[in-house]
Amino acid sequence: MSISKKIKETIKKSSWIRKMFEQGAILKEKYGKENVFDFSIGNPYMDPPEVFQKALIEISNDQSRFIHSYMPNTGYPHVRKAVSEYISGEHDVEITENEVIMTCGAAGALNVIFKALLDPDDEVICPAPYFVEYSFYVDNHGGKLKTAFTNNDFSLDIKAIESEITEKTKAVLINSPNNPTGVVYSQENINELSLLLQEYSKKLNKIIYLISDEPYRKLVYDDIFVPSILKGYNNSIICTSYSKDISIPGERIGFLAVNSNAEYKDDLFNAMAITNRILGFVNAPALMQRIVPLIQGVCIDVSVYKRKRDLFYEGLTNCGYEIDKPAGAFYLFPKSPIADDIKFVSDLQEELILTVPGSGFGKPGYFRITYCSDDEIIIRSIKGFKKIIEKYKK
Predict the structure, then answer these.
(1) For the chain, what are the domain ranges?
(2) Dist. CA 380–CA 387, nearest whole Å
(3) What dotted CATH number matches 5-48+300-391?
């Protein structure tokens, strides 16, 4: 065998999202791209805002010396300062550049965090359903991901999380707005979770970190407010990227921020500074970093995604699908008409509709739809969704 046993096993368990994306390529080749309804992968629908395009041209035209040289592993100081000032306002907290590290997207940030925190067999608790890559990120650094099912409306089940806490618990990881459900955890939920972690940190005489993965933070609808974990829990870390709100996932630029009141904050920050380097990221891309100060607070037109959400939600509920209307992100997570979500997703392919089974997110009996598509594609797909669900009503 030429590759490691562990990676071979990882390939077997690789993301359903990617599997469906690859299946889509096959169907598009066979039936034509315009005839396949691909709702499998969360690839942002819109182009980056004009302000980003202008900033890219401006920064690219800079011919100053040494601008492509190494910088501190944590990122350019002036970039981190710009980010910290924006975070301070967005979260209503005091964050400085000495608490921000620029990273290769949110995925890079999470790996940096877990490398810095986890000893072998340490546990990270995550509400389910969850983004499936989390299990790989935790495993990358010797940890174990434990899941706690959410309530029926996908809000946090605090008792379920409590039941998973052990002496090996190192962190709780949340994602709000959530992929795949689109739920935004309420202030009450965050407060309850913070109190729980404070209680168990004291009881176990150890720090249990609260980590929030927030790449969809700006993609919220209906005046929904996304609470800040930095406000209510000292030992907290946020990470995010510009992939979704600026539509630049391929550029791999994001950041993490440590709560200014975290215990052993300097040790934690220094640990993540070095893990950013030794994981091979070294530093976030220099070109994208120099753009970041020019685009703080910038976001795509969220109303476009809201329209697509409403279009899809109305079409599917009229067909009889059960769906909790998402408050953010760009996903729907309907209940499968049959218990076997994998079979149901396979049946949808008969109508050239590509979705992802909920089993891929740790929640069997559901399936995920990404509405990063033209309105026409969404409208035309409803006929196929209706045909398949009616097959199970007979």
Answers:
(1) 5-48+300-391, 51-294
(2) 12
(3) 3.90.1150.10
* CATH top-level class of 51-294: alpha beta
CA–CA dist 148, 163 (Å, integer): 8
Sequential DSSP letters for 150-188: --TTS---HHHHHHH--TTEEEEEEESS-TTT-----HH
Per DSSP, what are the bridge partners of residue 203?
none
pTM above 0.90, yes or no: yes
CA 109 to chain CA mean position, Å: 11
Residue 137 CA from chain centroid, whole number = 13
For 337-385, write each residue's pLDDT tens digit.
999 999 999 999 999 999 999 999 999 999 999 999 999 999 999 999 9
In angstroms, what is the C-alpha Rg of the chain?
21
Print burial letters for 143-169: b (CB count within 10 Å at least 16), e (below 16).
Answer: bbbbbbebeeebbbbbebbeebbeebb
145 beta partners: 124
**Identity at 277, one-letter amino acid code:** R
Whole-angstrom Cα distance, residue 73 to residue 284?
Answer: 8
DSSP assigned state of 328? B
Specify whether the CB–CB gap between 371 and 39 falls below 8 A: yes
